[in-house]
Amino acid sequence: MIYGKGCMFQKAKVAETLRRLGVEPTYSTFKRKYTLNEQQTLEHRMTLHHLKHKSEGGPTTIENGAVVNELAHRYLHILKRNNEELANNLMRDWKRNVDNGYEECEVQLVPEEEIEQPYELDVMTVETDIKGKISVKTVKKKKYNRAKNKKKTKRMIKRYYGGER
């Protein structure tokens, strides 16, 4: 995914910025009209928010879209138009920063933790018994396991960034 998993509304810190600017209702006030169970359900469902309204000719594209949770989407649409546009601009800025490589979406591994991909080699061993008889054994090395290496990489990334997010 280009912008990672999760809600762009939260990643761009739209709720905090609007609260500091005195926009009413605040996101936390808006959330209170839902039960905690409803809030959790709505915050896990992702929807596409058009940064330029579809009714105003805004296309359904990556450039014009913001992935937001359903609760944030409902909140955006109850705001006055100028406040919604302010929120849209915050998400546009966040997307621009990600596109320019300034956000946390890139994963960089510490050089000493780079993963070595094993070569597929046959190993030959020569053994001599007590009577001097020579025996040659060929042992096939295990093949490279892509899925196992992928799991190892994910564990390493979680360990490096301090667990799941």
* Sequence of secondary-structure elements: HHHHEEHHEEH
Mean pLDDT over the full residue set: 81
Give the tally of β-strands: 4
Described by its quaternary structure, the protein is single chain
Give the DSSP E fraction (strand runs of 2 or more residues): 5-15%
In spatial order, strands of the major sheet run 1-2
Number of helices: 7
**Cα distance spanning the termini:** 16 Å
Low-confidence stretches: none
Tell me the major beta sheet: 2 strands, antiparallel
Helix content: 40-55%
Shape: elongated
Number of domains: 2
- Return the structural class: alpha+beta
Key structural traits:
single chain; 165 residues; alpha+beta; two-stranded antiparallel ribbon
Account of the protein in words:
- The protein is an alpha+beta fold.
- The chain folds into 2 domains: 8-99, no CATH class; 111-160, no CATH class.
- Helices cover 41% and strands 15% of the residues.
- A hairpin with a 5-residue loop joins β3 (122-128) and β4.
- The longest helix is centred in the middle third of the chain and has 19 residues, at 81-99.
- It starts with 7 loop residues before the first helix and ends in a 5-residue tail after the last helix.
What layout of secondary structure does this protein have?
Layout (H helix, E strand, L loop, with lengths): L7 H4 L2 H7 L6 H5 L4 H9 L1 E5 L14 E5 H9 L2 H19 L22 E7 L5 E7 L5 H15 L5
Antiparallel strand pairs: 1-2, 3-4
